[in-house]
Design goal:
Helix content is 40%, strand content 23%. The longest helix has 22 residues. The chain folds into two domains: 267 residues, Aldehyde Dehydrogenase, Chain A, domain 1; 183 residues, Aldehyde Dehydrogenase, Chain A, domain 2 (3-Layer(aba) Sandwich). The strands form six sheets. The chain has a seven-stranded mixed β-sheet, with helices on both faces. Strand 8, helix 6 and strand 9 form a beta-alpha-beta unit. Helix 3 crosses helix 4, helix 3 packs antiparallel against helix 6 and helix 4 runs parallel beside helix 5. It has 479 residues and is α/β, with parallel strands linked by helices.
Length: 479
């Protein structure tokens, strides 16, 4: 194919050492484009470019940062339908979801454009006479950004925007599976007026490009979203050379449904949280913990809701759930469906491969019942349209089951009781708590992150992003 999509290093578009094809999971005969692959040498060149550009950008004015970030935001939002279609075509989420994600990316850049004008510090009197104390935030330097395939423009946005806002230089490695949205975003950033080397795109394998980021002494900080296993590797490498790091990893998120819940609300929360975006969200509610009084009615209503979901081409009008992202993920989903059956859970609906007009990775939404919290399908992150219902006798048992997990990203409860909602918000062991809302679906201007094995380091998004992308300096002056 012509029009090879290239890496962006030191202000120039450059070819790499190899090529990968970006295939549409809704139609595997459709190759979106070919994208260059960097080797370790090219990754090192990108890091060198960022290091050279970092000092000047660190001393740029708030207006310069605002102008660049606002320009990026404006173009993303102006092109949201076009970029949303590209996103849905390469990742498989429905077109409305794709456009929504692009819109969120534009809003994130707009938010951090504003934050660039609100850089704060403190001036305090010293405990000693005639001495002034100033506390300021400074950029950490070169930030390595490693992002996953399931949110191919929003997650890059919520890492790149604050990195630039607070004066850092960036080396960015998107997921190898879905380079299209990341490349389109990088093209917009490349035309935003940033000095050469401040932003660099290096596409390629994690074992090559990502490994170079982790071990290179000139990468001062790494922000990573992905699997638990890779996150632990990132942590070990960064600790070994005393680099700053931030991890967002897995989730096995519960949605508690109490007897007093509004059944319609509960079913919609479960369907949205567990199965929209094909269940491929770290915040997806794959454990549905339902108390006995509403259990049977909930299962019946959710089963009917899932049977009615339209599974088809992500870009086709009326599609409610797109395909799984690729064959490897589909194989993993099918493997867990078999595991659930072998463990003794009952497959109430779904879990079937289906054919559509074009060849793709189409799987109907799978719901298990008669499951227990010690089953693998209730312990391990599947990352697909697969959820299981666990019966609880009452609120206390439901809360205990919800917290009985190594993860702690998001959790939710459906109830009309203020008492139970308030108690759950205080006692749920997760970074984000939803009441009568899907576990998946968060705002861009407030903190994102979890507890336990889901996250490590300071929060992402909102004003809390400053904790990772800056370091604090305290200066004393005797006039």
């Amino acid at each position: 194919m012509s029009d090879l999509k290239q890496n962006f290093i030191a202000g120039e578009w450059v070819a790499g050492a190899g090529v990968t094809r970006n295939v549409n999971p809704s139609n595997t005969d459709d190759v979106i484009a070919e994208y260059t692959q960097a080797d370790a040498t090219q990754a090192q060149q990108a890091i060198a470019a960022a290091k050279a550009a970092a000092p000047k950008w660190a001393r740029s004015t708030p207006q310069e940062r605002y102008d660049a970030l606002k320009k990026i935001s404006d173009e993303i939002l102006a092109r949201k339908e076009e970029l949303g279609r590209l996103l849905s075509r390469e990742e498989g989420k429905t077109l409305p979801e794709g456009i929504g994600e692009v819109t969120r990316a534009g809003q994130i850049f707009a938010f951090f454009a504003g934050e660039a004008l609100r850089l704060r510090g403190d001036k305090l009197p010293s405990v000693r006479p005639n001495i002034d104390v100033e506390i300021t935030r400074e950029p950490v330097g070169v930030v390595g950004i490693i992002t996953p395939w399931n949110f191919p423009i929003a997650i890059p946005a919520w890492k790149i925007a604050p990195a630039l806002c607070y004066g850092n230089a960036v080396v960015f490695k998107p997921a190898d599976l879905v380079p299209g949205s990341a490349h389109a975003l990088s093209d917009i950033i490349a035309r935003s007026g940033l000095p050469k080397g401040v932003f660099n795109l290096v596409m390629g394998r994690g074992s090559v490009v990502g490994e170079t980021f982790l071990t290179h002494r000139d990468v001062n900080a790494i922000t990573f979203t992905g699997s638990v296993a890779t996150g632990r590797k990132v942590a070990a490498a960064c600790v070994g050379r005393m680099a700053k790091f931030q991890l967002e990893m897995g989730g096995k998120n519960p949605l508690v449904v109490l007897d007093d819940a509004d059944l319609k609300v509960a079913v919609e929360c479960a369907a949205n949280g567990g199965f929209f975006s094909t269940g491929q969200r770290c915040t997806a509610s794959s454990r549905l913990i339902v108390t006995s009084g509403i259990h049977d009615a909930f299962v019946a209503a959710l089963t009917e809701r899932l049977k009615g979901l339209v599974v088809d081409d992500a870009c086709k009008a009326g599609t409610q759930m797109g395909p799984v992202v690729d064959q490897s993920q589909l194989d993993q989903d099918l493997s867990y469906i078999k595991i659930g059956q072998d463990e003794g859970a009952t497959l109430a609906t779904g879990g079937e491969l289906v054919k559509r007009d074009t060849p793709g990775f189409y799987l109907t939404p799978a719901l298990f019942v008669n499951s227990t919290n010690d089953m693998r399908i209730a312990r391990e992150e599947i990352f697909g349209p697969v959820a299981n219902v666990i019966r609880a006798k009452d609120y206390d048992e439901a809360l205990a089951l919800a917290n009985d997990t190594e993860f702690g990203l998001a959790t939710g409860i459906c109830t009309t009781s203020l008492k139970y909602a308030s108690h759950f918000k205080r006692n749920a062991e997760a970074g984000m708590v939803m009441v009568n809302l899907p576990t998946a679906g968060v705002d861009y201007h407030v903190p994102f992150g979890g507890t336990k094995g889901s996250s490590y380091g300071s929060r992402e998004q909102g004003t809390y992003a400053a904790e990772f992308y800056t370091t604090v300096k305290t200066a004393y002056t005797l006039p």
